[in-house]
Amino acid sequence: MIYFIGAGPGDAELVTVKGARLLGSCDVVIYAGSLVNPDVLKYTKKGAEIHDSSRMNLEEIIEIMKKAHEMNKDVARLHTGDPCIYGAIREQMEKLDELGICYEVCPGVSSFTAAAAVLKKELTVPGVSQTVILTRMEGRTPVPGVESLKSLAVPGAAMAIFLSAGMIEKVAGKLLESYGPDTPAAVVYKATWPEQKVVEGTLKDIPDKAKQAGINKTAVILVGDFLGERYECSRLYHAEFSHGFRGAGKCCGKPELREETP
Fold first, then answer.
1. Residue 246 — pLDDT band, cuts 50, 70, 90?
2. What is the mean pLDDT of residues 32-49?
3. Residue 255 near residue 233, CB atoms below 8 Å
4. Bridging pattern class, strands 28-31 and 75-79
5. Between 20 and 30 A from 124 (CA), which of 75, 86, 112, 234?
6. What is the pLDDT of residue 148?
7. Could you say which DSSP state residue 243 is in?
8. Backbone CA torsion sign across 178, 181, 183, 188
9. Any idea which fold 111-228 has?
10. 2-106: which CATH number, 1.20.82.10, 3.30.428.10, 3.40.1010.10, 2.130.10.10?
11. In angstroms, what is the C-alpha Rg of the chain?
12. In the chain, % of residues over pLDDT 90
């Protein structure tokens, strides 16, 4: 069996319990060495065959999987964050389908949720944003025209931008028309790693701040009013709001838009 496993954003303890268990059971491990924290490999079994895929192409990766399968060995294919987000796993799975090799996908903690945790922010704040857009700036890998940053920025939703820290000036420039210069923004470099860096500001100054911090790769850019001071209390815990587990209590007024205490 081939297991595609999300290694999490960096901190080795953020691998899921299932992910760690699978790592410990596999005879062969192929990990994305340029992105995955090598500390995660502590969960591998003693004597496991370990390969760094950072210098390998698709055919070489599949060949290792094929040989392991022929020897009745389980393989852990370790990707950073959650493998379904910019993990390039579809092409690997299709190759395995062609070979008749079974596989499973074990999800992981994505760097965008880790970045929000580092900032102590909620991505879906009632009354501010209930939509999160995950995207990237076009670079060597193109982006469909309808998914350009300028187009996606129109709704004003919370946005997590991957693989674009080296082009942050262009990112900010494309977002400014819809979000406005004072829209809160943050850049989190290697969220949860020991060398983590956090830069906070607005769209008008975040490029300079990121540059001053020396951040030009391996970072998530977060943009939106969810990063700001204003928010609306959730109805989930409001005394007037009843649901299947709790009846409505005494009236204490409707939730108001209020400001967070620094």
1. low
2. 94
3. yes
4. parallel
5. 86
6. 83
7. B
8. positive
9. 3.30.950
10. 3.40.1010.10
11. 21
12. 75
Distance CA 176, CA 159 (A): 13
Buried b (16+ CB within 10 A) or exposed e, 169-192: eebbebbeeebeeebbbbbbbbbb
Structural contact between residues 18 and 112, judged by C-beta atoms closer than 8 angstroms: no
Ordered by start, the domain boundaries in the chain are 2-106, 111-228, 229-262
Identify which of 256, 215, 243, 13 has the alpha carbon closest to the alpha carbon of residue 117. Answer: 13
Query: Which amino acid does the sequence have at 226?
Result: F
- In this prediction, residue 244 carries a pLDDT of 53
Dihedral sign (CA 178, 82, 226, 181)? negative
Assigned token pair, 189: 């470099």
CA 26 to chain CA mean position, Å: 25
Instruction: Using pLDDT thresholds of 50, 70 and 90, give the confidence band for residue 254.
Output: very low
At residue 214 the predicted structure's pLDDT band, cuts being 50, 70 and 90, is very high
Would you state the pLDDT for residue 66? 98
Q: Which residue has the tokens 């540059």?
A: 211
- What's the rounded Cα separation, in Å, for the pair 142 and 80? 21
Gap between the Cα atoms of 192 and 59, Å rounded? 32
Give CA–CA dist 29/186, Å, rounded.
34
